[in-house]
């Protein structure tokens, strides 16, 4: 009777989110002997207290339920074991093993349909967010949602509704997907999702979707609702789980102080307690450090993310971030490699996630002096942007087109595209991206003989960088004091700069050191210059030098 009373007190404490009281009660019950329900309750309490021992407690509960001939209860515990292993250790093979046991134990038991559906739904979650296969994930998610609806189980139903919404947003069906996410989040806010883990998960899904399509306004509204919910329920853990995702939205909005505080605090805690979950925060912290110009710190974070237990959860964002870092260091060729690898890690139908990779690819090809390749990337991004049609994604497409146009010497097209990018990023509330677009616009204006307008755009861009605490990216060409006209051979601004140095007698290694570029990037620029000038063989450098003198570049 004492053990029964202790278990009852533990369950009540879980309902009240009094995790330490719950742990103490279940430990009291177990002091009298092994009990499956006490181990299950202890595991839940320990998980909320960020204690890795939750996994062992779940395993003990599973063993006892099986010995007691309770397959449905064992299956339920198997699902939560899988989720806990995922959060604490990131061992996807182990996660899939536990989910398989849950499905096998319940597939022929109509009375366990809800548990079976939960296992199927969590497997859909893994397929969407860990395998990056949104279309393949939809059948499992929809099956789980249907069963939960038929059973009147609102918490799981709303969780699967939100997960389906995230999948649809990822596939490019933004209107329907966001409507699903809004409905599920409203259910949490209204108190219709009593399970804390599900409530937390739903809010994280909506923030994740908003970050993918840069819908910072919607993300801000739901984060305010989440904060009010946490204050009302006294649930601090939920904020920890979602804070790293929302920090990505804060970066887009230009609220970097708050983003940094959230990332440093949340990742510091998660690194010690749930290291697999810390990957999301570490990726975003590395991105912040790169924007701040703290490139060595960003590189150290990416090196950490390349090891277990972070790697599985960090990809493909870590590869995208490494590409941005390479570009920031002047390595356009390396950035191209990482952007292409990022895109290969995604399914072809992951339209929303392909946007960032295609934009990076266009900018990287521009920096590497490959205008034709930059145009291909920008055109692919434009096609996606016209389908998704959100302000921020259309802005991204305009930026990519502008960068490609500068590389090709199409200065009027560059000007109009970059003006569109500035306007759209401003409307989307993305000041850093708007400043990038302004800096590129200044280069296009200067090159087309509009120095006064170029100087104004440079002033505004530099002021924004200063306000944010950002450094101006090295890959953006700076407007010179003297205007540059369109080049007869179609040389880009960067190529003309390198040609000047060739004509002055500098070697490729000297040029790389002078411009703070990688030797590989300089070699690609030189190759493109020779191709545009029709210079071949051992006389190519002499031909290029003659062209430079002929057109007053030397």
Q: Give a short account of the largest sheet.
A: none
Structural class: mainly alpha
Number of helices: 29
Principal-axis shape equals elongated
Task: Provide the helix percentage.
Answer: over 70%
Q: What does the radius of gyration come to?
A: 27 Å
Taking pLDDT < 50 over at least 5 consecutive residues as the criterion, the unreliable ranges are 481-485
Average of the residue pLDDT scores: 89
**N-to-C SSE string, H for helix and E for strand:** HHHHHHHHHHHHHHHHHHHHHHHHHHHHH
Amino- and carboxy-terminal Cα gap = 94 Å
Number of DSSP E strands? 0
Strand content: under 5%
Short description:
With 554 residues, the protein is mainly alpha-helical.
Characterise this structure.
The protein has helices at 2-15, 19-31, 36-48, 54-67, 71-89, 92-106, 113-129, 134-151, 154-171, 174-189, 196-213, 216-233, 236-253, 256-273, 278-291, 295-305, 311-314, 317-328, 332-345, 351-367, 371-388, 391-408, 411-428, 431-447, 451-468, 493-503, 508-515, 519-533, 540-550. It is mainly α and 554 residues long. The longest helix has 19 residues, at 71-89.
List keywords for this structure.
554 residues; mainly alpha
Please outline the helices and strands.
Elements: H1 2-15, H2 19-31, H3 36-48, H4 54-67, H5 71-89, H6 92-106, H7 113-129, H8 134-151, H9 154-171, H10 174-189, H11 196-213, H12 216-233, H13 236-253, H14 256-273, H15 278-291, H16 295-305, H17 311-314, H18 317-328, H19 332-345, H20 351-367, H21 371-388, H22 391-408, H23 411-428, H24 431-447, H25 451-468, H26 493-503, H27 508-515, H28 519-533, H29 540-550
